[in-house]
Write a structure and sequence with these properties.
The chain is mainly β. It is built from 3 helices and 25 strands.
Length: about 400
Amino acid sequence: MAFRSQFTSVAVAVQSSVDTWGSPSSTTDVFPCANVKLSKESILAENPEYLGTVDKPGDFVLGQKVGLTLSIPLRAPGGASPPSAGAFIPGRFLRAAGWTENIISSAIPASPEALGSGSTTTAAKLGSSATGTANLYKGLALTLSDNGTGYNRQMTAIRDYSAAKLATIAETLGGAPAANYQIPKQLAYQSGASGTPPVLSLSVWYDAVRYDLINMTVSGLKFNFPVSTRNSTEYPMMELTLDGDLYAFADQAAPLVGALGGIPTFKDGDFWIAGKALGGSSFSADMGIQVGYAPNPNKASGNDAAQITMTKRTAQITLNHNLKATIDFEALALAQAQHALWAQYGYVAGNMVSFIIPNGRFAYANVDNGSEFISQTIDMLIDDSDKALNLIFPY
């Protein structure tokens, strides 16, 4: 019988160290994903030997390259509180890409507290319970009780935080916040973790066979946020590419992966660019990861496991064209100042998604009239190394 594509399963575990198999569980480490493609490429070298004929000998086979691409829908963890460390399976890929898993398990403070003085329409002076450490809360969700009505409308995001407890936010409020604040419980993933990222072990089942992959390093990470409309019913995805080695190959039936149900779509939320709420069709953020392999003749492959050697973070935004009086991207590109991008959607705790780029410079916009509406595509160039991109699931 032929193998069926629908019977594809993936499990992932974080390795304790390089070359140590992580033994992903076929029950607790599997997760829903899409577009799973395993690539196995032979490493060839030309045979230079002369044989006294026009017919050259075949190439030498020196090994193989193993890669995996997959897509993961951006679905919040659910529940009433953030999951424990390492429990959120998609977060394992982010950690392997050099992101920090930041779990705020208790709200700060436990009950909403009055704001301090000195607030403006884009910043809030947090109260006595907040810690006065610069950048401590950068990239995290914040609730302001007088910022609209309802849980999701009162939620905003911090793009900068000073030692004086001044939290600068990514949206422009109608008036200075003057009531209560709270940094809610949340699971946040923030780029720029210190140290060497962990490597992953993955098992990939294709119906009746299993491929075990070891020392898998994230070599590509991109987030896509298409706006969901009546004509375009797409949903946000995390696109991943991983490189590593084949550990084992065996016959085994693919395990069942439980469905997790619906996900929030990018609509009826917030989309702020440079302090303006703007309409558009999508945006994406790419980590621009580069990996390298240090040579090592002691290893079977002749090299050590892949390591991330560089990232070049960028975002691309497709907006409806605006009046110059609304936002002047020519002037913004010329000035090369830092501006924030913030998107948030979903309605209830545990099922909301927030994504913030605190600082980025704009390249010159490109205009396109090839569809029903005139659009502008703008590249955002990111300089920050710490908390440059932040994915947040508020509670």
